[in-house]
Amino acid sequence: MPDINRRTFLTWSGVVGAAAFATPMFGAGLAAAAAGQAPALDSLSSDWLPQGELGHLPAVSNFWGAVGVADNVLGIRNFTLAPYLQGGGDACALSVDGAPITASESRWSAYEVLRKAVTGSGVRIQTATRLAFERNELLLRVTVSNPTRTAITVSVNANPRIARATAGWTWSPPRPGGGRTFTAYKVSGSSLLISDSGSSAVTAFAFAPAPTLSTASAGGTAQWSVAAGESATIDIVMEVGQTSTGAPLKDVSDGKSVLDACNATITEFQDAFNAAARGWKNRWLDAFTPGNGHYSGCLPTLDTDDTAIARMYYMSILSVLACERTNLSAAFSGVLGRPTGSGAFRGFDRVYVTGGPEWSNTVTYFWDTSYASVILALLDPKMVKAHTTYWLSKDIYNGYAIDCVSGNTVGPWYSANDLTVFTTILNYINYSGDVSFLDTPVSGTGKTVHEHLKSMATHWQSLVPQGQSLADYGENHNLLEVLPKYVHQVASFNAANVWMMQQVSQLSARAGDSATAKDFNNRADALLGEVLKLYDSANKGVWNCRHNDGTTVAVRTVLDFAIAGNLLAPALTDAQKTAMKSFVTTELLAGDWMRALSLSDSQAPVSRVDHGTDGAYDAWPALTAQTFARFGDYPAFLSLLRRFAGVTRQGPFSQAHELQQVAGVPVTDRPALNPAKAVTVSAWINPSSWPTQIWQSSIIGKDSWSSGAAGYVLRGGAGGKISFVITLDGSFIEVQTTSTVPASGWHHVAGVYDGNQLQIFIDGTVQATRPATGTLTPSTGTPLIVGSCPSDSSRRFIGSIDEARIYARALSAAEINAQYAATIPDTGATDDTLVLRLPFDEGNGTTTTESISDETVKINGATWSTGPTGFGKALTFPDTPAYRAVIASPDSLQVFNCVPGGKFADIIISELFGYIPDGTTAKLQDATVPRGLAATLSGVRLNGKHHRITSGPSGLSLT
Predict the structure, then answer these.
(1) 663-695 tens-digit pLDDT
(2) Which of 195, 257, 281, 845 lies deepest, with the highest CB count within 10 Å?
(3) CB of 164 within 8 A of CB of 201?
(4) DSSP 895
């Protein structure tokens, strides 16, 4: 087995280590960009986040596709770069001495995901995951530091199950199933080739330094030995392509070109690794550079000292760029398996797919795309024109999206199609200045674009039930899918019909067609009166749905506020606007995000994140903020933007963000927190209340059970009984008290394991004992949390905690009694076996210092209070901690990368800076109304003229 020493490690770490693992924290660097320039891409990374804090593990993209990372510190999942895609399950898992290593924390940036882990013996692993720029190539870099006295074996499983698919690309990509056979071939001492029996796909692996390499039926395993006291680096390349024959591999020589490309990269790994970052950074700058040679337009730059607003704007744009694909064009038709011949679909030069990497990898949804249509019209007007023209030629009533591999319409018709296609086309015309597009004939339809807009604006008439006045948008599956009462005659899309007819009237008037303008205006006025009947003041700001039997139901969803309120704002009374705003602020806003459905709705709770009570689709908060602006409430609009910017600490905008109630003080795992032979866990507590069950209130928790029992926890409940749980040789062992800690007043509690028994002390006296022997099972990679459980955030302590401690030995009864009797907090604090101490003595701020490691740790959902007499400050954990939003889990069918977050940049341009051109003239709305922000938007371009918009104390100015 190859031995790796420190010299090997230093070859890389001296070149790239600092850059790879020390990128700026939240917001840093945003204000440092020169005026008129975009910030550095690295300033838009996420925070370093504990793995347990993530709702959705990160993904990285390269303009050809994306790959997600797995729980394992090196693992990957959902590698999807059309036409290549990974089957179910994770790949590339890393193990140390046969034990898979779970990442403890990770950090996202546009071009890489960084991860860290520490084993129970103190071995440190850091990894970087990148996709080569615009190549079907994965780049993995591993650094390992072995402080132990023995050599360790590092293993990586190369088993990705990647196939090639030229058909079946819809919302759900055609991933290879269990009926496929994948075969691995050891080609040399440092290379593998893996074939797929069902397609022409081949996957090559190359490693540096050369490992000990073995193969199994579906992949291979690479192993290296890292000497005691040494550090090492390992580089891995995974190259994907197809056989030279275009058929499943029969001989290793069929995959030679893929293998050669893989080996070429491993020999120049540093260059490829750097190029992955450089390509992304150049593409990012292209987006803001006139005449950049890639996009057909460019975006304005935002200059402000308000870091939250700047981050919101640039992260919104970055989220859309993460969905850009350049490998679905005509140049890739062969590998994509498109048919040839006259009239065959040849693709688009650039595609902004709806999402990835789990689903929607090659499709553009009309609905989602519309929410990024302002920035897309500025950034890439030729692309928007090509796509929308194609949409109109394909019949938008026959699906909800276009698959950009086949060119086919996919899915059923969505109720939002008219509004969202109309919106994208209108924004293209107004922001690009291409007014002549209105008169462009659409191939195969016999209509111009303008005539299509008229048809979309009046399509609702075909949906009106006999004897009714509003369009029936059908059942649950055609609307929000999870709200069975939000059906039929809904306010949102009927209001959209009013707005679309108003827009057609204005377009016709500008074209000199006064008769059509008047006709559509009259129709809009008539329909407006009918739509307003759905608003009932008794619902306190909420609109009704009308079912086809004439009954009405109030559904407390964001959708009517965000669409009906947004589009009909000029027609609403002040009282209606006030009530609607109150509904949002009292029932929907939560923490740094919002919920799409009120908990007070008759259908609540609804668990699907995007449209339910647990979070919201990423466009809903943006539309909500825009509606406040449309109501004239710019202070609330700005406040909401700042509020929602907090979610970008998690990474890009995604399909949805999920609300979590988080409380506790998490401490990053380290070997000292996983003692093997004995442990003492202690704290001062002042409980406000206890839950029903004894396991429901974690005081200090480091317990985990997802991969088997591990760790320890001191907890309470059931009227104040205390429980101490440890894990011995892989099994949980618990001792409980019969005596209780009352729900008021300060009390000292401690759990002790000495190798022979477990004990619980309350106020210095033993209250429970249980014999037990064995070795403590470490919960490696699991953070220690004061005030909550790291494996179940619902197990929160309610009350105050002070002087949380862990000792790597069993304190005696006399020592514990001395701590209880002490009048100052330092008693026992100088013990050499004290491995964690949180004195909570700062008294202010959102962080605290762990005294032993000097780690600065976050305080989640707690407030400062007074500790036991003589002890200074403490932390109080409330009954209902604040909400925090995280990127929604794929378990709820949500993707990591998604375009609707582009709506935030859209509204910063259109509402914060008031820029609403009409295709001919650059115009500002509400220019005399101050926005409450000192900022400049530079490089706004319309019809060959460059403009700058300045926001100041007296309002907006356009120069």
Answers:
(1) 899 998 999 999 999 999 999 999 999 999 999
(2) 195
(3) yes
(4) -
